[in-house]
Design brief:
Elements: E1 2-7, E2 10-15, E3 19-23, E4 32-35, E5 38-43, E6 46-48, H1 51-54, E7 58-68, E8 72-78, E9 83-89, E10 92-102
Antiparallel strand pairs: 1-2, 1-5, 3-10, 4-7, 5-6, 7-10, 8-9
Length: 108
């Protein structure tokens, strides 16, 4: 069973046991949480997009680590004026592991 979930403003195609890098979450390392924003669900070869069915489904995940992303450097320069600007940025990331996808059997 696979699902398309929406978390941290991005969408991911996930299954049980997958590990994702998402923007920093409020949950701490080792905490389990549920993701209720499911866009679509693939079950037995059929795609379910009905919102009435999807509102009862959830994905259980666990934060396994927190880290920083790749450093991004931005350098701006204008010729003949001496204008130079160097900036850097690193995203704070959370590594999450998808434990399981819960689907009620009565409606599926």
């Amino acid at each position: 069973m696979k699902a398309i979930i929406s978390i941290s403003g991005r969408q991911f195609h996930v299954g049980g046991g997958d590990i994702l890098e998402v923007f920093r979450l409020k949950q701490k390392k080792g905490e389990q949480f549920t993701i209720n924003e499911i866009v679509a669900l693939e079950k037995d070869g059929s795609l379910i997009t009905d919102r009435d069915i999807l509102k009862d489904c959830c994905v259980i995940a666990e934060v396994i680590d927190e880290k920083k992303g790749k450093k991004i450097r931005v350098f701006k320069k204008k010729k003949k004026t001496g204008y130079k600007r160097k900036r850097g940025h690193r995203d704070s990331l959370s590594l999450i592991k998808i434990l399981k996808i819960q689907v009620p059997d009565a409606k599926s």
